Amino acid sequence: MKYRTLPGTGISVSNLALGTMGFGTETEQDDAFAILDRFIEANGNLVDTSNVYGGGASEELIGRWFASRPADVTERVVLATKARFGTGPDTNENGSSRRNLSRALDASLRRLGRDKVDLYQLHGWDPLTPIEETLSFLDDAVHSGKVNYIGLSNFTGWQMQLVLSTAKAMGLQLPVTLQPQYSLVSREIEFEIVPAALHNGIGLLPWSPLAGGFLSGKYQREQKASRDTRAGSGNAMNEHIFGELGAKDQNWAILAAVREVAAKQDASPAQVALSWIANRPGVTAPIIGARTLDQLEKNLVAGDLILDEDATIRLDKVSAPTPNDYPYGPFGEKQRGRYVDSSDQAIGELF
C-alpha cells in the first residue's frame, strides 16, 4: 500500500481507505476485528465510518476494537466519521445545525471511545441551515480539540465551492476532503466536482468505487444474480440499483473491458477497477468495503497495482460519460474555451 499526503494537512494516508458501513450489521465483530487488524498490518491507516451506519453499530464496534488493541496499533489509524442525517425521532436530530452536530459529535466520540477524530465530515448538504452556522461549529470543534480536520460528503460542485469561499471569507477552518460517488460507471462528477476539487486542493475519497460490486466481475448479462451477491440478496434497494446499472449497454461494455484488462495484467476485475479510480486526478483514496477478510485481501492488491498506459486509455475511453451538447458537450465547451492567442476565435466558431 502506498501513502499520499491528505491535501491541506501534514499527515499521510494510505491510498486505499477502509469503509466500515456494514460493521455490526453485515459483518459481525470477530470478522470486523480481523479486517481492521489486516488493514493496519498491510499499512492501511485511513478508516471511515459514520454515526448512521447501523444506527451507530459501526462506530461502537470500532470503539471496541480500539479498546482491545495496543496503542502502538490504534495510534496508526487516521479515523474519519460523519454526521448530518437523522439518528432519532426528534426533528432536530437531523441536519447541520450547531445543535445537532454538537450532539452528534459527542455521541460519536462516546461510541468510538476516543477524545477526538481526525476527520469529521458533513455527510450531505443541508439546505435549511445557514452554512455560516455549520462552519462556525466545525471551526469550534477543531479549536476545542475534538476534531483535527473537516471534510464534506455528497456535495455538488457549487455547494463545495460555497462552503470553501464562505470559510475563507470568515477565516474559518477549511474542508480538506470530499466523499463523492465515483467509479468507472459513474463519472459525471468529472464535469464540475473534480475540477472544483482540483482548483481548491480538495482530496477526493470516492465511495462505491466498485459500483456496489457491479465491477467485481461477478455478474453476467442475461443471468440472474446469485443469492450470495448484493444484486441477488433480495434487498429491494440493491436490486433496484443493479437494475439501473444493468439497463445501460455502456456499463456492460465497461465491465467487458475491465475483464479484458484484468486478464492481461494477471489481476481481478475488482483490482483493476480500484486501481483505475485510485489513480484518477484529485483522488486521495477510494473507500473499499469488505464483508469478509478474503474480500479485503483481494482488494488490498489494488493499492500497489499500476495499470499500463494502454489499459488506462482503454478504460478511459469506454467509460467516458456522454453528456448532452450543453453545457458539458462540445458546444458547451466552446463557450468556455479560449486560446492563448484568441484573435482568430471568431464568433462563428462559437455559434
Protein described:
The protein is an alpha/beta fold. The protein has two domains: 3-323, TIM Barrel (Alpha-Beta Barrel), CATH 3.20.20; 324-351, no CATH class. The protein is 41% helix and 12% strand. The protein has 14 helices and ten strands. It has helices at residues 29-41, 57-68, 71-74, 98-112, 131-143, 157-170, 193-200, 236-246, 249-264, 269-278, 293-300, 309-318, 330-336, 347-350; strands at residues 3-5, 12-14, 17-19, 46-48, 78-83, 117-122, 147-153, 175-179, 203-204, 287-289. The strands form two sheets. The protein has an eight-stranded parallel sheet, with helices on one face. Strands 1-2 form a two-stranded antiparallel sheet. Strand 5, helix 4 and strand 6 form a beta-alpha-beta unit. It is globular. The termini are far apart. The mean pLDDT is 93.
CATH homology superfamily name of the largest domain: NADP-dependent oxidoreductase domain
Helix count equals 14
What is the correct CATH architecture of the largest domain?
A: Alpha-Beta Barrel
Main-sheet strand order equals: 9-8-7-6-5-4-3-10
Low-confidence stretches: none
The assembly state of the depicted protein chains is single chain
Q: N-to-C SSE series?
A: EEEHEHHEHEHEHEHEHHHEHHHH
Mean pLDDT: 93
The third-level CATH topology of the largest domain is TIM Barrel
Structural domain count: 2
Strand fraction equals 5-15%
* Rg over CA atoms: 21 Å
Main sheet: strands, sense, barrel: 8 strands, parallel
